[in-house]
UniProtKB/TrEMBL annotation:
Species whose genome carries this gene: Phytomonospora endophytica
GO cellular component term of the entry, any: cytoplasm
Catalytic activity of the protein: glycine + O2 + H2O = glyoxylate + H2O2 + NH4(+)
Pfam families the UniProt entry points to: DAO
Listed SUPFAM superfamilies: FAD-linked reductases, C-terminal domain, FAD/NAD(P)-binding domain
GO biological process: thiamine biosynthetic process; thiamine diphosphate biosynthetic process
Stated name of the protein: glycine oxidase
Enzyme Commission number, as recorded: 1.4.3.19
GO molecular function: flavin adenine dinucleotide binding; glycine oxidase activity
UniProt keyword terms in alphabetical order: Oxidoreductase, Thiamine biosynthesis
Length: 344
């Protein structure tokens, strides 16, 4: 029986642990504080279309594959994780933002991705809470959402039920892990263990609460600044989109909160009346090309599963499938080849 040691009990680490345990492997997950990283700060958008950028074709294909796995993945967990298939609206306020929306629409069409360009009136009919200033929109019907906090709890339960063991200890060196295979899934803290250039990218997130009136995820560009509002069924609305290179600083900053609220309220004025419940900071693991490190490393015993940047929640199902397959068969799945950790 293959003994697998996984460093990191976030969404990625627990998904791999669950899949490996299901394959009959002996699994230990090492983490002193499961869920204390970016996994439970993230908003939970599953947005392969909304997050698509020029020059990221391999990452887009992996994201689309993972998004297609999400319905079965969510159902298999067997509990409510807030999974919703209601799409998202990308909206613009002024002419400059509208021009960027047109460019994104052209990009989506070029890739054959589902996205519908909307007039200002059509956009507001889809989401009546939007500001009258909205000048246009793009509906991404393939975008979904999940509650990462519920997801993390469900994954921890599923992994342990399948036979994985949680070891509450800090690991700084994979050589100290007693296992046949060691998977590094420690997010922004993975770099030193892999001798890889993984940088922490800070993201600040606000959680508001009010009437459950907002019906869909809204993503906007306000004077060039990205912002999103993600509603939950219970009336919670998650606001985010900041991105800053500040090392491992986890300080919630008033200026970031102000900018997020200013831009979100410009798009959805009613949010000004919502209760501000939480301001949290997370560190996304970024790589040189903002694509994950997935697969074998220079150490034949060590496998990387990190560097997912903004897409950790979205890519969890496909990462779990592919990394567990690699461990079980000893062969690198073709879908992992563009994300070889040794590519830099």
């Amino acid at each position: 029986m293959t003994h697998v040691g996984i460093v990191g009990a976030g969404t990625i680490g627990l998904t791999i642990a669950w899949r490996c345990a299901q394959r009959g492997m002996s699994v230990d997950v090492h983490d002193p504080a499961p869920g204390s990283g970016a996994s439970t700060v993230a908003a939970g958008m599953l947005a392969p279309v909304g997050e698509a950028h020029y020059g990221e074709r391999d990452l887009l294909e992996l994201s689309l594959t993972s998004c297609a796995l999400w319905p079965r993945f969510a159902a298999e967990l067997g509990v409510d994780i807030g999974y919703r298939e209601n799409g998202s609206l990308l909206v613009a306020l002024d002419a400059g933002d509208r021009a960027e929306l047109d460019r994104r629409h052209d990009f989506h069409r070029e890739l054959g991705l589902p996205a519908t360009r909307l007039t200002a009136g059509e956009t507001r009919r889809r989401e009546p809470l939007l500001s009258p200033r909205i000048s246009g929109g793009l509906h991404a019907g393939g975008d979904h959402q999940v509650d990462p906090r519920r997801l993390h709890t469900a994954l921890l339960d599923a992994a342990v039920t399948a036979g994985a063991r949680l070891v509450r200890r800090h690991v700084a060196d994979p050589s100290t892990v007693d296992a046949d295979v060691v998977v590094i899934a420690a997010g922004s803290h993975s770099g030193p263990m892999l001798s890889a250039a993984i940088r922490p990218v800070q993201g600040q997130v606000l959680r508001l609460r009010g009437p459950a009136d907002l019906g869909t995820v809204v993503r906007a560009t306000v004077n060039g600044n990205p912002v999103y509002a993600l509603p939950r069924a219970d009336g919670e609305v998650v606001i985010g989109a900041t991105s800053a290179e500040r090392g491992f600083d986890l300080t919630p900053r008033a200026g970031d909160a102000y900018e997020l609220l200013r831009d979100a309220i410009a798009v959805i004025p009613e949010l000004a009346e919502y209760e501000l419940r939480e301001h949290t900071v997370g560190l996304r693991p970024g790589t040189l090309d903002n694509a994950p490190l997935l697969g074998r490393t220079g150490d034949p015993r060590v496998i990387a599963a990190t560097g997912h940047y903004r897409n950790g929640i979205l890519l969890a199902p496909v990462t779990g499938e592919l990394i567990s397959e690699l461990i079980a068969t000893g062969r690198t799945p073709e879908a992992l080849e563009p994300f070889d950790p040794r590519r830099f």
